[in-house]
Structure formats: C-alpha cells, structure tokens
C-alpha cells in the first residue's frame, strides 16, 4: 500500500511539473508574440489539468491582447469556478471592466481577487497592476500603487520589476522605467523582454545605434526572438524619418526586418493586422494590398481589412476600388473610424473628380467634377479635424492640382493643410495657399475679384513672413495680392509696405542678390507701383521712385510715361 501511495504521489508530482512547464512555455510564446501558439498550449494544459485558475487568467489575457473580449470573459468566468487559485480570474474580469470604462466594477473584482490573498502573496497585486497598465483605458497611477505593494513583498522579483517598468513608462517616468527594466534584466538574464524594453527606451530618445546594438545582442542570444526583429523594424522606420539622405535605405531595412518578425509569429489575423499598420507607416502599399487580400481570405467580415484595401487601392491608382472599400468600411457597425480613413476617402474622391481630356494639339485639358471634388474636400477636412497630424499628408496632393493650374482646387486643399500650425509643412503650405489664391484671381477683371480669397492669400503670406522673415518672395506676392484689391486704401498701403520690405530684404542679402535679373525685374515692379501710389499725393516722392526705375532700365515705359504726366 505504501508503495502504491508513493507511486501515486510521484505521478501527481510529474503531472504538476509537466503542467508548470507547459505554462512556462506558453508564457514564452506570449512574450515572443506567438499568441495562437500560446493559446493552443494553454488550452492543452487546461484540458490536462482543468482545476488551475492561473492558467485561465493567462489564456483570457491572451484573448484580451487580441481584442477578443467575449472569449476572454468566458474564459475568466470558467476560471472563477475551479478549485485552485480561482481568485486570479477576478483580475481578468476587472480588466474587462476597465476596458469598458467601468472603474467601480473593476475595483470590486480586484478586491475579490485579494480577499483570499495572504500577506506574502504578491502575484495578485502584480497582475492587478498589469491590468491597469494593459487596459485599453489605462490608469498608470493605479497600476503603480499595486505594483509598489508587490515590490515591497518581492523586491527582487524580475516579473514585478518588468511590470513596474511598463507602468512607469506609461506614466512617462522614463528614468525610473529604465532602472526597473535594467533590474529585471540583471536579476533574470533570460528575461528578454526586459532587455528589449531597454532598447525601446533608447530608440525613443533617438539613440538609434545604441538601440540597434541592444536588439542585435538579444538576437545573438536567441535568433528566434521575434519582437527584437519588430523593434529593429520600428527603429529603422523612425531612423529613416530623422535621416532624410538615408530615408529610402532605412525604410527598406524597416520593411525587411518586419517581414522577418512576421516569419517568427503565427501569421494570425492579429499579427497580420499589426503588419498592415506598419506597412501603412512605411508607405509600402503594394505589400499592404497583398497583406489585406490574404487577411480577407482569413476573415471576410473584419472591417479593418476594408480599411487596408481602401488605402492600398488608392495608393496603387485604383480610386474606384478605394472609394468602394472605404464606404463599405464606414458602413460597418464595429468600424472604429480614424482621421486617416476620412483622409484617404477624400483623397480618392478628389482624385476621381479630376478629368483629363487629350487635346488635338497634344496638350491635355483638365477639368473638375465639382460636386465630387467638394465631397472629397469635406472628407479631407473631417480627417484633419479628427487628427491634425493628417495636415502633413496634403502637401504633395495640393501641388498636383497647382501644377495643373487648377488653382481654386489647390487652394481648397492647402487651406485645410494650413489649419495645423504644428505641421512640418506649415510654411510651405501657406506659401502655396497664397500662390494659388493669387493666381486664381490674377487674370480676372476688377469686378470679378474674389476679395475674401485675396484676404486669405494676404494672411497666408503673412504667416510665411512670421515664420521666415527673410523669405523675399512672400513680400512681393503679399504686395501683388493687395494690388488686386480695388478701392481699398488699407490694401494699397499694405501693397506699398510689402514692396518696400521686399526691396529691404533683398538689399540686405548683398549686391550679388540685388544684381540677379529676376530681382532687378521685381525692383522695377516695386518702384513703379509705389511711384503710382505716391503720384496721387506726393509728386516729388513719386518722381524719386520712377527715377530708381530708370536707373535700372532707362527704357521702362511705365516710369517714362508717368514722369511726363507728373510735370
């Protein structure tokens, strides 16, 4: 009997050891972002030993990572019915409450999880802290309250230190987050995510070489650790944005590293979604189209796939498919619409509104389907209102219409672009807004002038001057804009002022700049127009300006004729 009892105890120990090993392997798969693999391992472990509550929490958390809330809830609810450690699953239900903005419900569930915890138990506190950090509605201060309590009980535990690092980083306490990650890595050198996060922090401070070295070291220790490839991809993407001469080279490396990362994942729909988001960032729209098509075979109803199909169709020149896909996306109940969605739909509509007719003389004629163009502009404006950073995307698109001499349409695009003063193209966009509004009026008869548009142009050039006072052409075009406004003494005074400022700025740049033929012509324009204004009130002053003209061009007819009239 004793032998049988010992044999039974041995089998139980073996089973417990195998279960613990399976859970640890599942955790490693989660760390490597192989979520489908982790779920299979956890489900197998639970089937073999269905009374262990922590396994249900870990499985439910994987569902939450994948945004599959209903499966997570079902898993947690089963977990609270089991024999061993069921209380951990109240933590999972608490995170669901946080995700659904039910903070009181979350607190009630967290308190249930702590009811049976002993003084030396730190895991419940750690998991509650992680729930506050990982929720789609995070509360990093609350997370730190629980994690600091866990730290008091287990001050050197690497998982507690890692969780502290995540909460501190979320709370924008970068220095302490770095210390926490370093402590976790020093305590457990096999904890690769702690080392990964040290590199992430260096990437965030634009220490790209140092970040790359950290990720390379991780891969030297474990060549199959996928997240290091993803971080290398994201490092090269940001590096490319900060090193324009190497943008193409680094962007290509970013895409290559992300493909390597994908090969290390399970190619689940979730990992493909993340891949698609990265392809949008790196502007690899051919790759995005292929990925979106592959995703559609896996899931024909997920609305995000329509987003990717719409983006890639537009960038690959198929505006009809883009409009169809994005309209379908907008019609889905679960679609979470962002500013970029409106931007791409608007770009597709405005692009479609452009009609090109080949001429008999070999020159194309360009016209606009006005109602479709206006609908597109409304969508673009909505996109920028939702996400002002989208203003950065409009520069080249507006230039396309400007180059076709569709100035009114170009101005409509640039007017939206200039609504964000923090846009990296703010100065350039204001310049072209002013240009477009000026040229759309320059050849009109006096009674046909669009005065509000000219006022906008004046403001646009004023913005350029405020940002860059030595931009000489801003002064001359501001003067020209005001010259088009009839019967307005204030506009006339503004014209004179800006012609004078133009002369002053160019002269300050030296004789070589003044001697340029283009500037000589503009000096003549400025002096003539100022002279004509003074001719109404001060003939002596007017004559001085016309003489300046004749010093540059003795045959200038405007100056010669006006001087005759002044005598």
Throw out a few tags for this protein.
567 residues, mainly alpha, two-stranded antiparallel sheet, 30 helices, 2 strands, signal
What this model shows, in words?
Strand 1 and strand 2 form a beta hairpin. Among the domains are: 67 residues, no CATH class; 58 residues. The radius of gyration is 33 Å and the shape is elongated. The longest helix is centred in the first third of the chain and has 30 residues. About 1% of the residues have low confidence. The protein contains 30 helices and 2 strands. The chain is an all-alpha fold and 567 residues long. The protein has a two-stranded antiparallel sheet with strand order 1-2. Helix 13 packs antiparallel against helix 14. Helix content is 74%, strand content 2%.
The amount of helix comes to over 70%
| Portion in strands | under 5%
The parts where pLDDT drops under 50 for at least 5 residues are 9-15
Largest sheet: 2 strands, antiparallel
Number of strands: 2
* Oligomer category: single chain
Structural class: mainly alpha
The dominant shape is elongated
Mean pLDDT: 92
> Count of helical segments?
30
Rg on CA atoms, Å: 33 Å
Pfam families: TPR_16, TPR_8
Keywords: Signal, TPR repeat
InterPro entries: TPR-like_helical_dom_sf (IPR011990), TPR_rpt (IPR019734)
Protein name: Tetratricopeptide repeat protein
Short précis:
The chain has helices spanning 2-31, 35-48, 53-65, 69-79, 88-99, 103-114, 123-134, 140-153, 158-170, 174-187, 192-204, 208-221, 226-242, 247-264, 269-281, 285-298, 303-315, 319-331, 339-353, 370-386, 395-403, 407-417, 426-439, 451-467, 472-483, 489-508, 511-514, 517-534, 539-552, 557-566, and strands spanning 354-358, 364-368.
